[in-house]
Specification:
It contains ten helices and ten strands. It is an alpha/beta fold. The strands form two sheets. Strands 6-7-8-3-9-10 form a six-stranded mixed sheet, sandwiched between helices. A four-stranded antiparallel sheet has the order 2-1-4-5. The two termini are about 35 Å apart.
């Protein structure tokens, strides 16, 4: 894969080239030759069963691989820069500026003894925001996520909020730096349908409004079909199939994809239809 240019002559927002991740002790290959490229303004869904290597791939992009595994080979480029050339400090700073991640189970991401404003403040300090404007900045970020009374939200503790509300707060914090790349790792898995709809619409609208690349990690084909333009299917650390979303759902090429789609439609036909309808409305 070459470092091709996107619309307007810019490089890919995110490019992964032949990524291989191994376990230290066993030598087992956890991610095997994964490559993808994502331009600004595009939404790409990385799908597959639990344990197929989706989150491990994302962890490599963020420079946050867990203990016991390592990147054996491959290149990761963010806005055309090879991350292998960054020091740990550069990686941390550039990552915060250029890539934000929104994860599942928002309750575990918040310190229960700190207010929502304290969580905002911690992030804003790392981004160099003016302390005098920190509260107004946080309120504006919450308004963008659909909160009608953001000043009230800032004084709440995480346990006083629902999962859907916390996910929107997490999204507001993640987008403070207006990153050109957003990674949503199973960001709607634990939410009810109404909350899921709200988060998906917010992600889609934000990506379009800010011309940012969105990498959507999910095992839910309904979410992928509703939001993404392109899709990559993984199995046991490898890419099985990739292409345009419409082509994937209309004419899957691999037996694995066909079997997964058949199972998904059999179990979630009504849910699939409802999610698609609310996103396209």
């Amino acid at each position: 894969m070459t470092n091709d240019t996107g619309p307007g002559g810019g490089t890919f927002a995110l490019e992964i080239e032949n990524l291989n991740i191994h376990a230290h002790t066993t030598g087992k290959t956890l991610v095997d030759g994964v490559s993808l490229a994502l331009r600004r303004g595009e939404i790409l869904a990385l799908v597959g069963e639990s344990g197929c290597g989706k989150t491990m791939t994302v962890s490599a992009v963020m420079g946050l691989l867990p203990p016991g595994v390592h990147k054996a080979s491959g290149n990761i480029r963010i806005l055309g820069e090879n991350t292998a050339e960054w020091s740990s400090e550069q990686y941390r700073n550039i990552r915060n500026e250029r890539v934000s991640i929104v994860m599942q189970n928002p309750m575990s991401a918040f310190d229960p003894v700190l207010t929502i404003f304290s969580h905002f403040s911690e992030t804003m300090v790392s981004h160099g925001y003016d302390g005098k404007k920190s509260r107004s900045t946080a309120m504006e970020a919450l308004r963008e996520m659909g909160f009608g009374e953001p000043s009230v939200i800032l004084d709440l503790y995480p346990f006083q909020m629902s999962g859907g509300m916390l996910q929107r707060v997490m999204l507001a914090i993640a987008l403070l730096s207006h990153p050109p790349v957003i990674i949503a790792d199973e960001a709607t898995t634990d939410l009810d349908l109404v909350s899921q709809k709200r988060i998906l619409i917010l992600l889609k609208d934000y990506s379009k409004k800010n011309d940012c690349a969105l990498l959507l990690i999910t095992h839910d084909f309904g979410v992928a079909a509703s939001l993404a333009q392109k899709i990559i299917l993984m199995k046991e650390g490898k890419i099985v199939e990739s292409g345009e979303v419409k082509d994937f759902f209309d004419n899957p090429k691999s037996d694995y994809a066909r079997n997964l789609l058949f199972s998904h439609r059999a179990l979630y036909t009504e849910r699939f239809r409802r999610i698609k309808e609310v996103i396209e409305a």
